[in-house]
Amino acid sequence: MYIYFSNIYTQLLMKRLYTLVFAVIVCFTANAVWLENYPVDVTQPDGTVLHLFATGDEYHHRIHDAAGYTLVRHPQTGWVMYAELQNDSLVASNIRYGQALPRSIVLTPNLDVSKQKRIEAYNRWWQNARTDDSESETPARQRAPGQQAAPAPTVLRQGLLNNIVIYIKFQGEAGFTKNQSYFDNIYNNTTTGASLASYYRDISSNRFNISSTFYPKITSGTTILYYTDQYPRGYYQPYNATTNPNGYGEGRTPSESEREQTMVMNASTYVQAQVEAAF
Predict the structure, then answer these.
(1) Do the Cβ atoms of 236 and 267 come closer than 8 Å?
(2) pTM of the model
(3) Are strands 227-228 and 159-169 parallel, antiparallel or unpaired?
């Protein structure tokens, strides 16, 4: 339904050494922070827009309605359906979302995979995370996403980190409707609510501080500027013959990770001069 990235790097940036958390906002933002009931819009094959919610983090998340009923897109028809569990996986049932339910059908709200399956997703994410620092690949991992946070990686337990955020807009979509203060609050707020800064502060017992700066830089006002990707959103979503023939999937090239990495590299190049000037 949406994509997002959050990868930790320790690298040379523009020939100068900085420790960075590289984060890319693509409409849904979650950086090692568990978010609940985050609004997302999903389109049915007939053009109907569903106003739904996402709950989870970058390791595991699910789409659901206001009542908590989990939803998935049917892999053949492309319609959003109520989910059911099969072999500890969320799959599409034969009941389309929005249809009147037969009296014999009793749905289970907040349906999700097992805790063990979520832990596996968490470990798999870290195994695939692109990093140049071996220590940052091996934090304590055994926790269920959405529960108590794992300890910070060794290299991130104390000190100061500069976080670079790049705004990306998909081809053919409108620009961001929220202004800069909204995302400042998500990343840098240390007084109220959950944010990237407060998350790392809490798990490090106030020994680690992270400050986020946003690119492309806003020259005046608060309207967000962005890098426009060459592909539409569907290019970064799973393949569906009916609703998303341009998506990624088994046997289709480029792969999911190759598409994402190319987008990140293109966006990085787009703001490179601004980042270099800032440092």
Answers:
(1) no
(2) 0.62
(3) parallel
